[in-house]
Amino acid sequence: MTKEQEQTTARTMAALVRLIEERKYAPGERLPSERELAERFDVGRGVVREVLSVLEGLRYLERKPNSGIYLNEAPERISLETLALFSNLNLDLSKERLAEAMEARRILEVQAIVLAAQRRTEEDLLDIKNIVQRFDDAIEHALEDVPELDYQFHMSIFRATHNLVLMQLVTPFYLMSENRRLPFFSDKKRSRASNEQHKLILEAIEEQNIDKAHQVMSEHIGRVEKHYGL
């Protein structure tokens, strides 16, 4: 697939998801046909089929032979990867959906730091310390690197749990928030405050102090929630 074809597919996918969200299709509701979608978005049916294949693979849509295209009737079965996909397509989540995502992230993060405090190895500690130091350096010399280092910091905590499924569960939430982290960390004051909290988190993990770990991570997530008015 050429770059132009990829861009056409991405635009069409964004347009289809936007149509579904704006018109508030209900779970299990039938969508326009391939032909109708191709005409609406002024693209070939091959592009529409490619878009439908991706969304069906994420269990967002379902194609029923000799019947049509339907929004998944069971929203809980839709893949978490749709969160990352919508972000990549520059589609904004509703405030309600964003609040739900942050609530789920809080649950995962708080549980993860407890496990990390219990299970961390010396290698895990060195990894986290290295990221914290690089974060400090980036604030002063390469602020554009801070969002990626924030992602690395949080993923290093999940690695310290030694639970791959937890890492896989949380990854879509961070991919989803990538576009929001860029403006958030463009402010040096916010970046410094964030890394000071990272140091407290590291300290709690190093001390294997579960109560402290739980508290500092809850406060850290709470700061983000407050920033976004959640």
Automatic annotation (TrEMBL):
Residues 6-74 form the HTH gntR-type domain. CDD domains: WHTH_GntR. The keyword Transcription regulation applies. It holds the Pfam family GntR. Keywords: DNA-binding, Transcription, Transcription regulation. InterPro entries: GntR_C, TF_FadR/GntR_C, Tscrpt_reg_HTH_GntR, WH-like_DNA-bd_sf, WH_DNA-bd_sf. GO terms for molecular function: DNA binding; DNA-binding transcription factor activity. SMART domains: FCD, HTH_GNTR. This is GntR family transcriptional regulator. It comes from Candidimonas nitroreducens.
